[in-house]
Amino acid sequence: MAAQTEKMAVPTDAELLKAQADLWRHTLCIPTAIHGLGGTASPTDLIAALSLPPSKLSLLGRLLYQLATAGVFDTPDAGTTYRLNPISYLLVDGVHIDGDACQTAIVRVASSRYYVEAAFGLADWFRKDFDGPVPSPFEDLHGATIFDDSMALLDPEMDKLVHEAKASHNHMGIGLVLRQCHDLFQGLESLTDLCGGDGTTARAIVRAYPQIKCTVLDLPKVIDKAPTEGVVKYVAGDIFHVVPPAQAVLLKSVLHLWSDEDCIKILAQCKKAIPPRGAGGKVIVIDIVLSSASGLMLETHHLVDMLKLVMTRGRQRDEKDWSDIFMKAGFSEYKIFKKVGARAVIEVYP
């Protein structure tokens, strides 16, 4: 029987920020079962809850202990029971923090055979000489590009999972930004959220700032499944061709998926969509800025960069890289508004 214990409290902002950085370094699959057992469980509890063969008990215990050693679970009694902590809390299905906080789709994508096969093929990929733009190892091996129709043709279920991972990655932390960056949205009357998915981020902004009229732009197959509650306007389209006009445009965890050349094209469309700076026009970029960070944050930044290298033509950028693409897209100035966990909030002005 599961140990009787008080359910874990919702992590604080600081705990969530550190947990998200930690999470990008790990994979796991059993926090939901522990949550259902009250937040703490023994290996025997989990064998029953997950309907695993009893013969796997000792093997499960070894896996759990390794995950606890890596910081994914707490084990107050050295392996007798395991308890959720902020990292594993983010992987509990159905738990909501600032929208849909569950990050299991990200873990499943990063541990999928498609990603693993591409990562193990890096040596061969580096030896190849390509004519024209260099495809990602994922694209080169599988003949498909994530977020493209080719991915849906390769594997519809994997395509769905990739979009779920992108949505959970993008939406996680918007509440922290709204709480910690009070001036970011002050005075805005309209905002377009590019690649905003089901509108979770846009709805959070409207709840905090009811005067802002929010529009979400995303691919038709994403917009077709968006809710129709009337709070947010949804537009199906392509970020390379047209951006719905607004006082501000939000690019939250978008540009790191694209090459510098593509980022410049996207930002140029954003510049066309906003008014001059004197009328409040700006682009809000929320993304990683590589820096001289140390320890966990430095490791997280560069491991996420390796994920981008394997799966996309994009990359993580340092401040000089960001400055270069902003200026080449026709913007005059930018400022790093605030750093929130592993990401930075950047205001870019026309």
Structural notes for this entry:
The N terminus is likely disordered. The termini are far apart. Strands 6-5-4-7-8-12-11 form a seven-stranded mixed beta sheet, with helices on both faces. 43% of the residues lie in helices and 15% in strands. The protein has 350 residues and is of the alpha/beta class. It contains 17 helices and twelve strands.
SSE diagram, text form:
Blueprint lengths: L12 H11 L7 H6 L3 E2 L1 H7 L7 H13 L3 E2 L7 E3 L1 H4 L14 H7 L2 H8 L1 H6 L9 H6 L6 H6 L1 H16 L2 H7 L9 E5 L5 H9 L4 E6 L1 H4 L9 E4 L11 E5 L7 H14 L8 E6 L1 E2 L4 H17 L5 E2 H10 L4 E8 L2 E7 L1
Parallel strand pairs: 4-5, 4-7, 5-6, 7-8, 9-10
Antiparallel strand pairs: 1-3, 2-3, 8-12, 11-12
Helix pairs in contact: 6-11
Give me some keywords for this one.
350 residues; alpha/beta; 17 helices
Compact description:
The protein has about 350 residues and is α/β, with parallel strands linked by helices. It has 17 helices and 12 strands.
Q: Kindly estimate the percentage of residues that lie in beta strands according to DSSP.
A: 5-15%
Order of helices and strands: HHEHHEEHHHHHHHHEHEHEEHEEHEHEE
Q: What's the rounded overall pLDDT mean?
A: 84
The level of helicity is: 40-55%
Question: Which stretches of 5+ consecutive residues score pLDDT under 50?
Answer: 1-6, 23-27
Return the structural class.
Answer: alpha/beta
Largest sheet geometry: 7 strands, mixed
Anisotropy-based shape: globular
> How many strand units?
12
Strand order of the largest sheet: 6-5-4-7-8-12-11
Radius of gyration based on Cα positions: 21 Å
Q: What is the end-to-end distance?
A: 62 Å
Please tally the helical runs, counting DSSP H or I stretches of 4 or more residues: 17
